[in-house]
Amino acid sequence: MNHWFAPLSSLLFAALLALGGCGNAPVTTCNAGQIACGVVCTDSRTDSNNCGQCGRRCLSCNQGVCMCLPGQVSCRTGCAALAQDPANCGQCGRSCGPLGTCTSGVCACGPGAISCTDGSCAVVNNDVNNCGACGNRCPRGGECVSGACRCPASLVACPNACVDLSVDNDNCGACGRSCSNGRTCISGACACPAGTVRDGDACRLLSGDPNHCGAIGNQCRDDQVCSAGACICRPGLRLQEGRCIDPQSDATHCGVLNARCGAGQACIAGACSPTSDCVRMGAQRLCGASCVDTSTSPLHCGDCDNACDRDKVCVEGRCRSYRTAGACTTCPCNACTDASCCGAPGGGNAVVCVSGNQCP
Fold first, then answer.
1. Cα–Cα distance measured from residue 42 to residue 51, given in angstroms and rounded to the nearest whole number
2. 209-227 pLDDT per residue, tens
3. In angstroms, how far apart are the furthest CA atoms of the chain?
4. Number of domains into which the chain is organized
5. Does the residue 163 lie in any domain?
6. Domain that holds residue 289
7. Buried-exposed string 105-134: b where 16+ CB fall within 10 A, e elsewhere
8. Inter-residue contact 128 to 149 (CB < 8 Å)
9. Residue 288 covered by a domain
10. Do the Cβ atoms of 166 and 160 come closer than 8 Å?
11. 253: in domain
């Protein structure tokens, strides 16, 4: 790799630090097709300074792949001449260490460094990846001092990292003890976050959980959702005679209470009309005397009379599970890493995590 890359990389890194590219800096939001490199948005498919990933410098960039000069190859950090590049000597990623040199793809180690079996050089006195010996990695967050790994004060060495046992959800109070089911690590013990109630090993948000609405074990009906700790009719449904009906499609209460459709009629958009007016377009279809959109109807999801369970919503004709998103009131929410963050079915100041990649 040309040696002018190294100082430029250092300058770029320093500039990103100055701009707040690390630590607790605000997250940079980019347009579709771009990635955030520090506080700058760029198209990594064509940016020769950030080709395929931030910091990879190339002669030119084509669809995220480095285009290099003859005699060079594309490495993780950019283009490199393996025969003479001390950072990529003989192969990508093989470092000759501080003050080391690379000749014909072979490292000559500098003062204080030793040669490892893979041909790289390591200063085992202070190298966290080769501490005391080649290949001896210190735990994440640790440091290498005089050839020995150690963790900073107040942190404990667990197998893979130096952690604060008082707040680490994966190592709460002891290495390997993780907090699950909505619990979080507080003062070294797994506890339920504010606003939730402990139920065995789980934390329940009684204000929005249809399986524990207002109290542990209080289940809403399939045609209801939990809102503010009370079971109410699902959005778009109305309570009539002890059940939740859709006044836009229910032939016994079409539009208003007790407005019954006659023979040969169906309730279409809250009005009694000939059944032939329920044109089967897309997911709209005639279910008995009800003209419904089976892509969104919680009572006819995907097919007539296929009602979604209390803890599911209808998305594109499929009943998808959802769960309360803890203390989150807006999206995005960290609790929804494996699901879509959506507004709660019952409304209010809450959000839910819906399985799949789309909200109702």
1. 10
2. 899 999 999 999 999 999 8
3. 96
4. 1
5. no
6. 247-293
7. bebebeeebebbeeebbbbbbebeebbeeb
8. yes
9. yes
10. no
11. yes
